[in-house]
Amino acid sequence: MVQELTSNPLFGLILAIGMYLLAHALFQRYPYPVLNPLIVSTIFIILFLLSTGISYDDFYVGGSVLNMLIGPATVALGIPLYHTFHLLKKHYKSILIGIFLGTIVCTFLTGILGVVFHLNEKMIASLMPKSITSAIAIEISGKMGGIPSLTLVFVIVSGIMGAMMAPAIFKWFAITDDIAQGIALGSAAHAVGTSKAIELGAAQGAMAGLAIGVTGAITVFVAPFMFNVIQSFFL
């Protein structure tokens, strides 16, 4: 009976959505950064699987359905961008230059930090695409000789940490411009950061959605090049 239930794709899907809704309700009541719904729901699911003895493979049969929605959800970010297109048209030079330079610096410094902490080439290759959406990051990591599953972990952690720390960073450095906030969240914390940007406002959400696409496109070319540079001069 239990086996039939857990092998049904609806089981993993309902569990994932249910745990997230529970975690989100908790965050609404106690809005502390450490209670980020993604972190809490992940912990809830892990504890549930461990306590019931249900395997991750059984859960993933249904949970993987949510992966299929990453693409459509990313495309849907174009809706707020459409509504704030006037901002993009007015500031497109500073927006694109900021994303381009930020992507280069972030990718290179990530690789250098890997060298400083004596990580091997596979680890560095897995870490360098951490700031872009998972679908693109996994492909880049694999082509550079990294470990895609490890890259996925880095992407998730990067997104959660970025969304958690962004409000404090904006406050400390007096970053009040809507466009700057959105670009920062989208380019550094991908989809998770974009969800936070949408909470801050429509303009922030639109710019974050734009930053996800542009950052991903730039990283496809920049990450392998930077990795080769680091291999040649630092490894």
TrEMBL record:
Coiled coil: none annotated. It is found in: Membrane. InterPro entries: CidB/LrgB. Its main location: membrane. Keywords: Membrane, Transmembrane, Transmembrane helix. The keyword Amino-acid biosynthesis does not apply. The chain crosses the membrane at residues 6-27, 34-54, 60-82, 94-117, 152-173, 210-234. It is a multi-pass membrane protein. This is LrgB family protein. It comes from Carnobacterium antarcticum.
